[in-house]
C-alpha cells in the first residue's frame, strides 16, 4: 500500500507550521537495524524521516513481528505520543541508515495547546497518518494470516 502524499509533512502542514515545528527539532541519526521504539513502551518523542527507510511492525504472538509499512523521506514516525496514555502501538526499526528530525512530544503538545490553529493542523495531519497506518496494518495482517488475504479491494 503506497503512502498518500497527504501524510507527508510537506503536503500536510502549511509552511508556517512546518517552520514552527522544525524550529523545535533536533537532528538524530540511526544506523541500519536500530530500534527506534517497541510496542508498549512510553511514547515521549516522534520523528520525521529526512533520509533512509524505517519499517513499522506489529508484534504477533508466537511469530516474528509483521512489517506493516515502510516509511521514507518526509514521513512521520510515531503518532502514539499524541494520545494518552502515550504508549507505542507499533514498533519501528531503521532498515537503512536513517537521518531524522526528532521532536520532544511534551513540547509539541504544549505548542498545540497554546495555538489552536497549529494544534488543529497537527491534529488533522496526525489523524490522516493514523487512519492510513491502521488500514495498512489491516491489509498487511490479512495478507499474512487470513485464508484468502486482503482481497486487494481496500
From TrEMBL:
Residues 9-78 form the Cyclic nucleotide-binding domain. Pfam families: cNMP_binding (PF00027). It comes from the Bacteria. InterPro entries: cNMP-bd_dom, cNMP-bd_dom_sf, RmlC-like_jellyroll. SUPFAM superfamilies: cAMP-binding domain-like. Signal peptide: none annotated. Coiled coil: none annotated. This is Cyclic nucleotide-binding domain-containing protein.
Amino acid at each position: 500500500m503506497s503512502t498518500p502524499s497527504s501524510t507527508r509533512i510537506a503536503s500536510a502542514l502549511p509552511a508556517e507550521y512546518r517552520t514552527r515545528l522544525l524550529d523545535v527539532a533536533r537532528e538524530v541519526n540511526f544506523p541500519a537495524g536500530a530500534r527506534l521504539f517497541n510496542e508498549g513502551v512510553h511514547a515521549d518523542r516522534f520523528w520525521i524521516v529526512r533520509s533512509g527507510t524505517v519499517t513499522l511492525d506489529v508484534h504477533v504472538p508466537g511469530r516474528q513481528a509483521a512489517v506493516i509499512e515502510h516509511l521514507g523521506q518526509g514521513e512521520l514516525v510515531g503518532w502514539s505520543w499524541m494520545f494518552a496514555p502515550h504508549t507505542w502501538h507499533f514498533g519501528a526499526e531503521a532498515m537503512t541508515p536513517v537521518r531524522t528530525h526528532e521532536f520532544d512530544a511534551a513540547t509539541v503538545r504544549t505548542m498545540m495547546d497554546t495555538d489552536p490553529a497549529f494544534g488543529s493542523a497537527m491534529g488533522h495531519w496526525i489523524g490522516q497518518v493514523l487512519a492510513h497506518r491502521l488500514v495498512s496494518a489491516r491489509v498487511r495482517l490479512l495478507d499474512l494470516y487470513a485464508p484468502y488475504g486482503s482481497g486487494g479491494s481496500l
